[in-house]
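User: I'm new to structure prediction. If I give you an amino acid sequence, what do you actually give back? Let's try with this one:
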Amino acid sequence: MIRIYDTNSISVDEILNREIKASGVEEIVAGIIADVKANGDKAVKAYTKKFDKAGLESLEVTEDEINEAFDAVDRKFIEVITKARDNIAAFHKRQVRSDFVINDTPGVILGQRVIPIEKVGLYVPGGTAPLPSTVLMTAVPAKIAGVSEIVMITPPNAEGKISPVILAAAKIAGVTRIFKAGGAQAVAALAYGTETIPAVDKIVGPGNAFVAEAKKQVFGKVAIDMIAGPSDILVVADETCSARVVAADMLSQAEHDKLATAVLVTNSEQLARDVSAEIERQLELLPRREIARASIDNNGKIIIAESVRAAVEIANMIAPEHLEICVDNPFDYLGMVRNAGSVFLGKNCPEPLGDYFAGPNHTLPTNGTARFSSPLSVDDFVKKTAFTYYTADALSEVCEDVAYFAEQECLSAHARSATARKN
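Assistant: Good question. You get back a string of structure tokens that encode the predicted 3D arrangement of the chain. For your 423 residues, that looks like this:
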């Protein structure tokens, strides 16, 4: 059963279980990466057989397989996922940055170019449920950014097949190539390349502890979006909220993963008790109740705060991945929010609206990293290059200043480089 605390009986560090570590993961992942780096496709296939029970002749998904999957899925799914793609695209198009040029000083031109990353790898988990939403949330902003090669990698089932809904989503989102592999071996293949799988410049997308560790270990060889941990949600609610709705929202994250965290912060003791009882009732109705039960029992918490404003301040200290502000006037509190991955405002904005349909990205900072990082965006798929141009006269005006600065750093060759061009 979920535990109820007041703010005097629990510290912020105790609210989210952020020190979860899987023993031995680092060494296992390092060995897998070294094997894939040395043996390419052979190693990827061997690990796919070992972990996914799939014996594969070919790693790449064919065009025929993609089209067959697209034709096989329910037409309602195609309709809904297309609407979701359009919403995601409309939101992310507003994030596109432009080049700029500054020529305010005679003889000087400065500027910045925004250049798409050439090759990006999308990791889409298989796990206990297919996640076509992750395909959209990673591929759509990459496409908008102008990435020329979008490579998706996702684990197959024991028959060597990818879920048709995953393949249909990839077709709709504009993925370039798709490969059958998961886990650390998939990340290694994207980082170093194999005979079949191309090496990419950046890897994005969530995964389990082995995927997260692999992304951490290949960082530097390639870029990554973030090190994702277990999902979490924090609901701020007052006495006017429905306990049934709040419980449903908390369980929407608890069913993700046994390590997920669902937290309610409320100024109402009655709501706290009612939500606790409602969670117990709804848990019994969930097909994934074993997963949700472990999440709630081990990590779920209800915290009683003095006021809604105090509850929002607690949320800032926790920096949740998902923050719901379930009150009648949520915009009164939006300006107070400093640390959250994505904010859901009001009583009619459940977190799954953001997971699937609304438009903002659902690939979000976890484990309190919303204190310093952001949701996945178009910015993750571009790089910026600065440029500088000086005429001879413009350089002559400033070269002594540049040389003086260089000498203060004891870098005389730097100084000489500046003065060598002086007339």
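You can read the tokens as a compact description of the fold. Here is one thing that stands out. Residues 391-423 form one domain.
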